[in-house]
UniProtKB/TrEMBL annotation:
Residues annotated as domain FHA: 277-330
Region (Disordered): 229-267
Cleavable signal peptide: none
Pfam families: FHA
Record's compositionally biased regions (Basic and acidic residues): 229-245
Name of the protein: FHA domain-containing protein
Listed InterPro entries: FHA_dom, SMAD_FHA_dom_sf
Length: 373
């Protein structure tokens, strides 16, 4: 059973959504259209936490409202998954508290063994008596489920999984922490080989951001129609002839295509695809001797040092993830966007946008003769 306190001023209160498997609390100012889409996501039979979060980020990652979301598992033995942002908090009956105050995006974790959960907006005024709520939407600054919380009780600890070094009692290790953190430095390796002065030494690791919320995961590599020279089972065969256009077979030089292609980068820069192109925050030419190295700006370090490889094959582009932390969102001219990561590769048509993160996109396009150089 859900409960909520009646707000003093309903028109200024947030929104509480109670579903079969979800409790959602949002700050004031969220449009009714967003509330309706959240309700539809929350009551879908196959809905998971990511479906609700996808609705919240649809308006832009930098324009998120304050919110708290709790997903209750079908199996009572499983933990409750929660996501919290801004002035919202989640408290459990075992005196655990999760706050989203310091999150750049949101805090996401799993809470085990909770028999009562309270979602609240710290900016909201104190409400009146607790009223029951079945399934539906109401204006409120607070929503609770399960065992009632004693009036005025304050939890012992304010836990932010992304910043704390310990996991509090009654919680599992975070399943995903969307707030960016910088991983601790690894033990010092042996002295590295000399590095050219124009090459960046990636001292800080790439910040991790969960980009799977923005696109379906690209997982089935078996369905790809990759050129023979990129297939794992063709490693023992002939390699591309370095003396001819990349991707041609030795002794069978094709005629040069009538159209030239390239990648259009931010700032109006165009990169020709006359040879493989490696994109990243700081790829090193020595590791990719036959490729064109293109460094892109990533102030928040969401783009990996060596992020993505692009190889022209006829009139299509083969893009391969190079073990990046956050992957690349591939947006073709038609069809759904997909998240390319984990070393996967995909063949994409002209007009496809490659979103590397941090606002950096590369568009695969046909070039005018004057641009192709």
């Amino acid at each position: 059973m859900f409960r909520y306190p009646t707000p003093t001023l309903a028109a200024e209160a947030g929104y509480a959504i109670a579903g079969d498997r979800f409790a959602i609390l949002l700050g004031a100012g969220v449009t009714e259209g967003v509330i309706a889409r959240l309700w539809n996501a929350a009551v879908a039979e196959t809905a998971v936490l990511e479906d609700v979060l996808s609705v919240l980020v649809a308006g832009g990652i930098h324009d998120l409202p304050d919110f708290a979301v709790a997903e209750f598992p079908d199996d009572g033995a499983q933990p409750v998954r929660v996501a919290v942002r801004g002035a919202a908090i989640v408290e459990t009956s075992d005196r655990t508290r999760v706050s989203g105050a310091d999150a750049r995006t949101w805090i996401e974790t799993a809470l085990a063994g909770a028999v009562g959960i309270r979602l609240a907006l710290e900016t909201g005024p104190a409400g009146g008596d607790l009223l029951p709520l079945g399934l539906g939407v109401t204006r409120a600054h607070e929503l609770s489920w399960g065992r009632p919380f004693p009036a005025g009780r304050e939890p012992d600890a304010d836990v932010t999984p992304a910043a704390a070094g310990e996991v509090p009692p009654g919680t599992l290790a975070p399943v995903t922490v969307a707030v960016p953190t910088i991983a601790p430095a690894a033990p010092a390796p042996p002295a590295p080989a000399p590095v050219a002065r124009d090459e960046e030494i990636d001292v800080l690791q790439t910040i991790s951001v969960d980009r799977s919320l923005f696109a379906r995961l690209f997982e089935d590599e078996d369905d790809l129609e990759l050129p023979d020279f990129l297939r794992d089972d063709a490693r023992g065969g002939d390699l591309p002839d370095e003396r001819t256009r990349f991707g041609s077979r030795r002794g069978s030089r094709p005629a040069a295509p009538a159209t030239s292609y390239g990648l259009r980068l931010p700032g109006g820069r165009t990169v020709p695809l006359d040879r493989p192109v490696v994109l990243g925050r700081g790829p090193r030419a020595g590791e990719h001797p036959d490729a064109r190295i293109e460094r892109v700006s990533s102030p928040h370090k969401e783009i990996s040092g060596t992020h993505l490889e692009a190889v022209l094959d006829g009139a299509t582009l083969v893009v391969r993830d190079l073990g990046s932390t956050n992957g690349t969102i591939v947006r073709p001219p038609t069809g759904a966007a997909a998240l390319l990561r984990g070393g996967a590769a995909s063949r994409v048509p002209v007009g496809t946008e490659l979103d590397l993160g941090d606002g950096v996109t590369a568009v695969f396009d046909a070039l005018e003769p004057s641009t192709a150089g």
